[in-house]
Specification:
three-stranded antiparallel beta sheet; 3 helices; six-stranded antiparallel beta sheet; about 20% helix; alpha+beta; disordered N terminus
């Protein structure tokens, strides 16, 4: 009986791990750095390693000057970010399709993470920072985001609805990177808040900029009913955007499976403890 529980747990957790890993960009289909992409201030080397976008967005910045990623301390290393300058673009593919799911929180289907951060306005950089909601490192220009099922036919997400890539909301490494933030929040919403106050508004999310596949349009600007997409293309019209990763908002079944695995784990631990007492 114990063995059955253990096998079920192993299958559930292994499937969950695989599913969660597939929630992030898995391949780079094309990259054009454009003009004015970011460069390292000390070496002049460009942030042009497109593979940096793959996998989970950064939760920690490595190195002697690194540390946990939070809304005041975004990722900033070349191995963490790929930069796209004006006229440039980045196309990534996913192993798991991005499903157009209206029941997702706020309708958000995928999230793009950059390296913008909240400006500290009270001068306390040792953990007691307060922001007025303004950003540093954000793209003040314009971007276009498109989706495709086959990397051949592309659909632009309605520019009137799609936010600029590499802006709100700065990454919080302790949050859930596949959970969207309420897009009704603005920079002003964060004015006068410290890290705890920012996290209160994030409500457990890891930040990032949310997008809805339902915003897809054809070349004539007509709305398209696109059930899912397997590719995302980011184009920078002006300014420059840094991208750390792209996450798919998971379907409810993923969370249900994870919860099931946790319940099995707790149940097995209880059985083992009872067995040891006897």
């Amino acid at each position: 009986m114990h063995k059955v529980h253990f096998v079920g747990l192993a299958l559930a957790l292994s499937f969950t791990v695989c599913t969660c890993a597939a929630q992030f960009a898995q391949s780079v289909a094309a990259y054009n750095p454009g003009i004015g992409f970011a460069t390292d201030f000390s070496t002049g080397a460009g942030f042009t390693n497109a593979l940096a976008v793959l996998g989970e967005p950064s939760r920690i910045t490595p190195g002697p000057f690194g540390g946990p990623v939070d809304p005041f301390n975004p990722p900033y290393l070349r191995e963490q970010l790929v930069s796209i300058g004006a006229g440039g673009s980045l196309t990534v593919g996913f192993g798991t399709p991005i499903v157009n799911r209206p029941e997702n929180p706020f309708g958000i289907d995928f999230i793009i993470f950059g390296n913008a951060g909240f400006v500290i306005t009270n001068g306390n950089f040792t953990g007691g920072g307060i922001t007025d909601g303004s950003l540093f490192g954000a793209n003040a220009g314009h971007t276009r985001v498109s989706v495709s099922t086959d990397n051949l036919t592309w659909y632009l997400l309605d520019p009137a609805k799609a936010p600029t890539v590499d802006g709100l909301f700065p990454t919080d490494g302790v949050g859930e990177l596949t959970k969207a933030i309420d897009p009704a929040l603005t920079s002003l919403s964060f004015g006068g808040r410290d890290l705890a106050g920012i996290r209160e508004l994030y409500a457990g999310s890891g930040g990032g900029t949310g997008f809805d596949v339902a915003w897809a349009q054809d070349e004539a600007g007509r709305s398209v009913n696109l059930p899912s997409a397997s590719f995302v293309r980011i184009e920078v019209v002006s300014g420059a955007s840094e991208v750390d990763g792209i996450a798919i908002v998971p379907e409810p079944a993923t969370w249900a499976l994870l919860a099931f695995g946790i319940v099995l784990l707790l149940a097995r631990k209880r059985v083992v403890r009872v067995g040891r007492i006897r």
